[in-house]
Amino acid sequence: MMLESLREEVLEANLELVRRGLVVDTFGNASGISREHGLVAIKPSGVPYTELRPSDLVVTDLDGRIVEGALRPSSDLPTHIALYRAFPGIGGVAHTHSRNATAWAQACKEIPCLGTTHADYFRGPVPVTEAMTAEEIENEYEWNTGQAIVRRFATMDPMQMRAVLVAGHAPFCWGATPAEAAHLAWMLEEVAQMAFAALTINPGAAALPEALRDKHFLRKHGPAAYYGQKNTKTKA
């Protein structure tokens, strides 16, 4: 079985989406890429999460051609591929229809950065794409969904804003690994709910000051990050 380790990582990321309550039925998917091999592993289309095994994951190249696997890949594969092609620093993508983040996407509204919890993961408001045209929807819809995301990030750093809301659709998140992408999908749902609650309590709530926003993001993700522990093995 090709890319066994990557398959296991991608399976675990998909199951994490379920454990966190981010998917309903078979909606949603996670994938991972081996940059060394130029291959993507992704959840098969429409298969219940409870039945998934590493061998069920489909491996494709960056043109979407199946390299290994007996099942059809997720219908969102072209969107994932578009992101892998455009954002060379990412190693995993997670797509959900989680309730609160999807509500913001359906409202075609960005999620404002109102507090430090948001800033710990997303450096500013989570953007929303422009609505797709009828032609884009009718022809290569999933690929064009990816292109809508890529266009939205033409002037943004995808490693400092690792999430997007597709207008009228749902969120996509990405990270260095499939596990990180799944974790960010969970955090996105949390901040989406917090923003809705905060604006319900105070419709005039202001965005977090830029200095405080950047402090919280950079202390976890900047070049001089100091939050948490160094990635070293603990000696007995």
CATH domain class name: Alpha Beta
Rg from alpha-carbon coordinates: 18 Å
Tally of separate domains:
1
Query: What's the architecture in CATH terms?
Result: 3-Layer(aba) Sandwich
Low-confidence stretches: 232-236
Helix-and-strand structural type: alpha+beta
- Note the main sheet: 7 strands, antiparallel
CATH topology title: L-fuculose-1-phosphate Aldolase
Shape: globular
The total of beta strands comes to 7
Q: What's the N-to-C terminus distance? A: 35 Å
Order of helices and strands: HEEEEHEHHHHEEHH
- How many helix segments? 8
- Major sheet: order of its strands? 4-3-2-1-5-7-6
Helix content: 25-40%
CATH homology-level superfamily: Class II aldolase/adducin N-terminal domain
List the helices and strands and how they pair.
Blueprint: H1 4-19, E1 29-34, E2 39-42, E3 58-61, E4 66-68, H2 77-86, E5 92-95, H3 99-106, H4 116-119, H5 134-138, H6 141-152, E6 163-165, E7 171-175, H7 178-201, H8 210-221
Helix pairs in contact: 1-7, 2-6, 3-7
In short:
The protein has helices spanning 4-19, 77-86, 99-106, 116-119, 134-138, 141-152, 178-201, 210-221, and strands at 29-34, 39-42, 58-61, 66-68, 92-95, 163-165, 171-175. It is α+β, with helices and mostly antiparallel strands and 236 residues long.
